[in-house]
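Appendix B. Raw example, untouched.
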Amino acid sequence: MKIAVTGKGGVGKTTISATLSHIFAEEGKRVLAVDADPDANLASAFGISREKISEIKPIAEMTELIEERTGAKPGTLGGIFRLNPKVDDIPEEYGYKFDGITLLITGRSKEAASGCYCPENVFLRRLLRHLVVERDEVVIIDMEAGIEHLTRGTAEAVDAFVVVVEPGQRSIQTALTVKEMAKSLGVKNVFVAANKVRGEQDVNFIKQGIKDMIFIGALSYDASILEADMKGIAPYENSPALVKEVKEMKNSLEQHLGNS
């Protein structure tokens, strides 16, 4: 299964991505968790220590590797470079492995705009395509708000886009925008997961706002998630309620995909 998790900043997509990864790994599946958000907080959501995080270098910042594989120096525009660089060894060579999960931080070049035709973006797009299209693990991608950095072939191969929303108009608008972007790339399965809900009234507000999008479940507002962040541990370890609700979301997601 290949799942891309997106949503407006601060809605909890990283917490859900990390918890889903743990749940799949708990089932005995090999999991590849990909942090494709420039803010790169997925390692923290796994409870990885600051010292270890500092040792995990984002792929986009590996300038020598990108130059070696593409034949062009990162930061250069246009020119001639390989459009299909070797990437199949990246997860094994540069992923951080723990508890049946391999964490890969892709990052984004500080010099390059997200849509530029340059070696680093070509390399990252090729890597994402490899992870989604060619790998046989469960792949969970923690994305920034939007999917414009995916190619059509990559987006079509994702089994599900899960847009995380919280009670609020801006969050819901992001979900509706993602749906339209996904549709333009040929993606059929776009789902909504609610977070930080305080009761049935919040759930109903979100369901009304997302119109005909498929709702797969809600996570209750939970102070233990903030507490986990303060302690530097994974919410998965600190909040049984979170794990229960994310498992329910996962079951709903699998049921919908099985019926699609």
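End of appendix B.
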